[in-house]
């Protein structure tokens, strides 16, 4: 288990971030879509690009362990919580640079906020991602994606991204173009470098509002048929990446694990690549199902599944509280 933060470093962090804004011992479960996980030693909510840059920069300078989260839609937090500083990216702001280009704070939620704003103006491109929980920063980290309206291809957020302002791992703030992100499937430069997105620019196509809304309605219906309702079954979406074009859910299903329950967590009965919190599940129970699915699929099919979600905190430490 990581040692507590040195009081001198803590005082320096308090001073840099304004003492009253640094929260202690904050439960992280409500900040994740799984609704699972212990507390953060320290939590800071960054609301502007400057605040986010200062928080990350100061933690780096002081050598304080830190983790950036958005709406926690792609992470599992350990029952023991997270030592050090968790920075919640709540950077707000939506500014139209011209009638097709919008500059957005990295903490703005793609759905509903940004999609509602852009669709109301008759601008399309982000509407494909209706119903997916994500901040703008998380969406660029992930290269957010969903099927095209005719289901023949996948639409990626990369396609409407112009560029961003980042805090680079070297410490400087810079503007980068879309090519900087080296987007792939479930992948971008943000998986490989310690850069932080502060704002992002999207270029959107004019389209009739009713057409955009029709696609959104159809996508929501499609998701509703296959995916668990987050309010009934909290989850983090797909657990494993697609592997050589083969869906992880199909492999897990073929191994007979669809609907398998462990404690208060379960492999969703309609989509085997999703683990759901059946009510009061622990991170250890979810982790058990993930390990079980991976080991069973490897043994029975030879495919070695890789997780898409991130794990935050120490999964070997005893739970707090
Ligand atoms: C019900 C459900 C359905 C989903 N469906 C889909 C889907 O159809 N398609 C799809 O692509 N994904 C899907 N997902 C996955 C999830 O929505 C995405 O991974 C999303 O982009 C995560 O965003 P977040 O803000 O929650 O990031 P978090 O989960 O909080 O963090 C994820 C990672 O992003 C990093 N990050 C966050 N902000 C920044 C920033 N400003 N700069 C750099 N790094 C940052 C974090 O450090 C972390 O490593 C689904 C998830 C759920 C729960």
Which SSEs are present, and which pair or pack?
Blueprint (H helix, E strand, L loop, with lengths): L6 H11 L5 E5 L11 E8 L2 H14 L3 E4 L5 E3 L4 E8 L4 E3 L4 E5 L4 H11 L2 E2 L11 H7 L2 E3 L6 E3 L4 E7 L5 E5 L18 E8 L1 E2 L2 H18 L8 E4 L9 H7 L6 E2 L2 E3 L6 E4 L5 H19 L8 E3 L9
Parallel strand pairs: 2-5, 3-5, 4-19
Antiparallel strand pairs: 1-2, 6-7, 7-13, 8-14, 9-10, 11-12, 11-13, 15-18, 16-17, 17-18
Helix pairs in contact: 1-2
The structure holds flavin-adenine dinucleotide (FAD).
Flavin-adenine dinucleotide (FAD) binds next to strand 3, helix 4, strand 9, strand 13 and strand 15.
Question: What does this molecule look like?
Answer:
27% of the residues lie in helices and 26% in strands. The chain has helices at residues 7-17, 49-62, 110-120, 136-142, 209-226, 248-254, 283-301, and strands at residues 23-27, 39-46, 66-69, 75-77, 82-89, 94-96, 101-105, 123-124, 145-147, 154-156, 161-167, 173-177, 196-203, 205-206, 235-238, 261-262, 265-267, 274-277, 310-312. Strands 6-7-13-11-12 form a 5-stranded antiparallel β-sheet. Strands 1-2-5-3 form a 4-stranded mixed β-sheet, with helices on one face. A 4-stranded antiparallel β-sheet has the order 15-18-17-16. Helix 1 packs antiparallel against helix 2. The relative contact order is 0.14. The structure holds flavin-adenine dinucleotide. The site of flavin-adenine dinucleotide (FAD) has 32 residues, from strand 3, helix 4, strand 9, strand 13 and strand 15.
